[in-house]
Each structure stands twice: as structure tokens, then as C-alpha cells.
Structure prediction request, 294 residues.
Amino acid sequence: MPIDIHLNGTPLGHEIRGVDLNNLDEQTFKDIDDAYKTYGVVVIRDQKLTPDQQLNFSRRFGSLDRFVFDRFNMKENPEIFIVSNLLDDGKPVGMEDAGRYWHSDMWYVATPPRGSFLYAVEVPHDGTRPLGDTYFASTRYAYETLSEPLKEQVNQLSAVFSSRKYGEYVGHTPEKAKDNIYLKEVVAAREKIKNNEITHPLVRTHPITGKKSLHVVQGVISQVIGLSAQDSEELIDTLVNHVIRPEVVYRHVWRVGDIVLWDNYSALHRATGDFKLPQRRHMHRTTLSAPKIN
Ligand code: SIN
Prediction:
């Protein structure tokens, strides 16, 4: 039976209904994989996944990467990165403020992972509605809808993605971390990223679908190579704003048991930070490696 896909009117937002990820036959898995390739974001609700079950499902797509800050990976299952605001004995059990800016995951490594699968274990609530939504925008659609001259221009360009600039942008600085145990851990983890600056082309071609997309991240690009500082900043602002036009953004309102699969090569995402303890948010993320193409 074909899978039940519900589109929501944005270039990438849609939901697959009526599947049990612990009981997937080959054809249903293939249909989910096809939807993942086509849309870049797949929402599947009402799942019950132990860490091992999430790993088994994720590995059907390919090999997995560990999140670079090992401190926030699950000890017994280090391929699960914990996104959480919970504390254990006063210490953060996971990364609380992962991704509160428009980004694709792990842009600071030479070969960023293809995708991430985020599973909701606990979702915060204010009594009337869930909190901690995640927004998604298609960088593929953004590339395809650029004007021809702009497309020509960005096709030729590369840019410097800077961890230092990012740290300042989101306030992960040693000064701010002085009295904050959580930030102290994040800043220490960030120090370990050797390549504080990395150059990526502004357009990337998806290694599996062959489709082109814009490769930009908010608050991170310190310089477009070959442009003046001002032109560089203006171009990046134009491109990021083009990607995140409100009319094309999909906003995911989480429920416990949701798993959302996103493709870093064709989408940006951003988490909201509109909750705090005792409102609890606890998520498990697996990270799909870049495919090895011979
Ligand atoms: C992430 O960027 O991996 C986390 C997204 C979220 O917490 O919604």
C-alpha cells in the first residue's frame, strides 16, 4: 500500500501518516526514503522509539556521524546527540540551545552530514500550546527561485564560515560563560573545534539527488571570497532572507513521539527558545553522514 503523504503548502513541509518505524517493510522504507529525497523534510508522528530503535531506523539510510561535542552525546549510545534543557544533579544532560538560528547542521566541518533525525521524548507546554517549535526553509527552492543573474553570481562564489563569528552571534563567549555552568560547557566544547574557519561554496549540489541548493547559514559567514566586506555582508543578508521568506517556511509544532527527518543539503532549520524549566524539552538526534559516492 502506498504511504499516506500530507502536504502542507510549503516547498518542504509534509507529513507521512500511518507508519510504524519499528515495523517497516522494504517498500515502505523505500517510500519514506523517496519522500526524504523529494521534500527534504519528513514529519512522522506517534512513534515509540528507544535509542536502539532510533539508531536501527536511522542506519537504514546510511552510516551515522557523532555530534562533534561528545559531552552532549548519550554515553551508552554516542551516535545519539541529546538536545535537552533537563539537568541531572545540577548538570545539563544535553545541549539546551542547539540551533536557535537558521542553519544546517555541522557547517563547521569539511564534509557536513547529510541529515538529522530528531525524536521528541518530552515537549514543553505552557498550558495552552506546545512550545519549542522548529522552523524549516528549503535552500533548494531558494536556489531555484533566485533571479538568473544572482544565480550566475553565487554559482561562482565561496565563503568563509567562522565558528568565532558564530560564538559572538549567539552569545557563546567566555565572558558570558563565567557564571553559567551550561555556557561554560558549550564554550569549552567549542574551543575544541580546530577549524575555526572553513570555506564552503555558496551553492552545493546534492550528492544523491543532483539538485543544487544555496549553502548559507545565519550569523556565521564572515566573508564571501573576492567581495568587499560590505558587499559580502549585503549578499549574505539577501540570500538568507530569500531562503527564510515567511511564506515558504514550515513551522513544526512538536508532539511527544514525533520524529522529523531533515536534509541539511536542501534545508535550513531554526529552533525557538520560548520555554524554560519547569517546562521540559528533551529530544534525541541521530545524524546521517555524508554519503560516500564512488
Ligand atoms: C538542532 O538544530 O539539531 C536542534 C533543533 C531543535 O532543537 O529543534
Q: What stands out?
A: Residues 229-243 form the longest helix (15 residues).
